[in-house]
Amino acid sequence: MGWLEAVALAGVRVTAFVVVAPPFSHNAIPMRIKAMLGVGLAVAVAPRVTGGYAPLEVGPFLLALTGELVVGLALGFLVMLAFSAVQSAGALIDLFGGFSLAQGFDPMSMVNGAQFSKLFHLVALALLFATDAYQLVLGGLFRSFGAIPVGAGLDVPATGELLLGGLSQMFLAALQIAAPLIVVLFLADVGLGLLTRVAPALNAFALGFPLKILLTIVFAGVVVSALPGIVEAITDDAVGTLLGVR
Fold first, then answer.
1. Which one is predicted more confidently, 181 or 202?
2. Can you count the helices (H) and strands (E) in the chain?
3. What pTM was estimated for this model as a whole?
4. Residue 199 burial (CB < 10 Å; 0-12/13-18/19+)?
5. Nearest CA among 130, 112, 134 for reference residue 121
């Protein structure tokens, strides 16, 4: 019974994690597959979680299940925050490049944005699978059982600090990713403004919208080509965050 209880608690944490954390949170993966994946990974991590576990009564066991659900959701949200930087960078490029007028909601990835926001999100997910970075994320989740044993609960103040730090790092990383293209678009606006002052009859700002779209498309390749290294760095940060949770 102790083995079953420990595996059940681990299964709740892992299932809650894969429901929230990318790339497993994508709606292209059916919910029953996520549940089966959570159970299978819980059985795989059983040797790590069953050692030293003492069976609980019904009431404490139900409380422990709730605690593991909260732990899994918190860990998944921390990973989601790390990878949201790529999507946020695409949103910034859409905003400054003039693509934000064509926003739409993608029910599969649960992303509400324009073209580059969705493109960067899909490229990040593809890189996670193509480079086996998702295995590092799962490895960080498995090592979290050493930091937070099953049934031990979560240190709320420390986790809150990690969430706040992850949120600020997400905005900073998004700005750093999109910064080169944002600078180019800003300089284009400055150039159009100077041209309008020199020759007002040209109405240079009428060319601003198509010109910024052209510059965004041309220079976006530079940002996309840097995404593999960015995703690698974000994966390392996400794994480090998982290991830092207590």
1. 181
2. 9, 2
3. 0.79
4. exposed
5. 112
